[in-house]
Amino acid sequence: MASNKYTAVGFIGLGIMGFPMLENLIKKAPSTTKFYIYDVMAPALEKMASNYPDQVTVCGSSKEVAERSEVIISMVPEGSHVRSVYLTPDTGVLAADVSGKLLIDSSTIDTATSLQVREETLKKYPTASFFDAPVSGGQLGAQKGTLTFMVGSKEDDPEFPVLQHLLGMMGANIVPCGGPSLGLTAKLCHNYCSAMIAIATSESMNIGVKAGMDPRVLANVFHNSVAQSTVCDKWCPVPGVVPGCPASNGYRGGFRVQLMRKDVGLAVDTAKRVGATLALGGAGLQCYTDAANDPKCKDLDSRVVYRFLGGNENWDGKQAEREA
Ligand code: NAD
């Protein structure tokens, strides 16, 4: 870690994303780097500690992680969890003296919570730093170390080179988004856009298939025309069009529809807060909310909106094969 001055790194939240992100960090950091970890669920902690016994120490609270580390990274589900991790009296990160330490939250949460945690951090410990740095790239990107980090900082922030170095061990693109909470803003705008593209692609493919078209022909027309998108090219919501993508595998894997619902909700809230008019936000949020609560769609990849909208999944007679 040539440009990284830290030798004790804390990590809080070892779930679907946090676990592989931390593994990459451990593998790529110098072997002398020590890691202090915490999660409310013990099994992930035990697994990580037994995989890397010389480098990893399990802590009993976020406070302990913060006491023993110089940089602390958190990756938990929602704003309420981030508040709990940082602000819980006696056991939260800010219960430790984090003067001069670097705090990075990579959770996808609302900007207001992130700004509140940053403010409380700086009020109590003026020499500490707090950055939002959410990610895109999913579980696969976390495993491969190819995540995109959207960092709530300016490019010329004195801490940015260190952030770039640390986060670069878990990701391929480290993007300074301009200032506090703007990493989250970028993430929420991105997910809102991709969520609406997934609905538009599902709806238009549904029209085409119901009218008798082969969805592969339609996808090829989109690919070569103005409706081209990564959603259609790589994550096509119609099963059997893109081999290997979640829709072609019973919608397993990918980005859970409940998480997409959460992110669209956060984007719609942000739009209200900043006064941005949305034509699609209300209907889109309702669609993801209903899909997330539908037993046929719950826990599956968010492109399952095609199924939710009643799309024909058996257009090629191979649905049973894909569901097996
Ligand atoms: P997850 O539920 O798999 O993992 C979250 C972990 O945080 C769990 O292990 C949980 O026990 C732990 N946790 C919760 N509250 C805690 C607390 N108070 N103290 C310590 N640990 C606590 O979630 P995930 O899929 O890893 O997602 C994490 C974040 O990353 C979310 O904000 C999500 O929106 C975002 N994200 C997820 C994906 C994805 O594909 N899963 C992609 C990009 C971004």
From TrEMBL:
* SUPFAM superfamilies on file: 6-phosphogluconate dehydrogenase C-terminal domain-like, NAD(P)-binding Rossmann-fold domains
Q: Which reaction does it catalyse?
A: 3-hydroxy-2-methylpropanoate + NAD(+) = 2-methyl-3-oxopropanoate + NADH + H(+)
Organism (species): Rhizodiscina lignyota
Q: Does the keyword Iron apply?
A: no
The segment(s) forming the 6-phosphogluconate dehydrogenase NADP-binding domain are 9-177
Q: In which pathway does it act?
A: Amino-acid degradation; L-valine degradation
Q: What class of enzyme is it?
A: oxidoreductase
**Which residues of this protein are catalytic?**
187
Could you give a GO molecular-function term held by this entry?
A: NAD binding
Transmembrane ranges, per UniProt, are: 6-26
Q: Which GO terms describe its biological process?
A: L-valine catabolic process
EC number per UniProt? 1.1.1.31
Mention any Pfam family matching this sequence. NAD_binding_11
The protein depicted here goes by the name 3-hydroxyisobutyrate dehydrogenase
Protein family membership: Belongs to the HIBADH-related family. 3-hydroxyisobutyrate dehydrogenase subfamily.
Where's the 3-hydroxyisobutyrate dehydrogenase-like NAD-binding domain? 183-307
The lineage's top-level taxon is Eukaryota
Gene Ontology CC annotation, any one: mitochondrion
- Reply yes or no: does the keyword Phosphoprotein apply: no
Task: State the UniProt keywords alphabetically.
Answer: Branched-chain amino acid catabolism, Membrane, NAD, Oxidoreductase, Transmembrane, Transmembrane helix
